[in-house]
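[Primary structure, fold]
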Amino acid sequence: MAVRYAAAALAVMVAACAPAATSTAPPPGQAAPDPAPVAAQAIRSTTPASARQAQFGWELDEAGARFRGRGTARYVAPGRFRLDLFGPRGETYLAAAMVDGQMRVPPLLLERFRLPSPALLWGAVGVVNPPADARLMDASVNGDVTTLRYALGDDVLEYRLRGGRLQTVRRNTRGGVAESIDLEHSEAGNLQSARYRDWAAYRSLNLTVESQTDVTGFPEATWNPPGT
């Protein structure tokens, strides 16, 4: 059962509300005649120049049942991401990696939960990293707020930044918000917390960031969790 809930934590960092209707109209603000440079700047400003490791505490709320622990994220943007979740006694609940948008997760876990979209997983650490097959629709600027919208199949992926830092990511479907993430930063600009929501599943995962550290790199084995 612990594995199932930890798996849900990766799959969802999720929500407690019914989906809200979304609009296909561009957000308010000054629309950029050419959105590509605006998007490129947003990606540059949120992509770490080196490999990075983050330590965090997590708390999952699944239909009122709460579970918590600690975790580690190791990543080299934009291509590689490793997530490990641990329980209250330090036991390993989950180990998963993503390489160039493809998840590497033990088959047993794949049978038990649905993974979050890669864009939302990157958003959890403050990185704007739209999938390779996403098509930039538009960009708007309203003061220090920048909004980017990408078409992703039938969905719309929306990023919102303030002062060059990622604030929210939304994946919208025709029925409303499918999944979202909201970030909070300190006055110094350091990422403090992230809340991921799966609106249809009524689950939420709060991440409280303890540290983010630049590192020289990771062993190749990092990207191949045991059992994959």
Notes: Residues 1-24 have pLDDT under 50 and may be disordered.
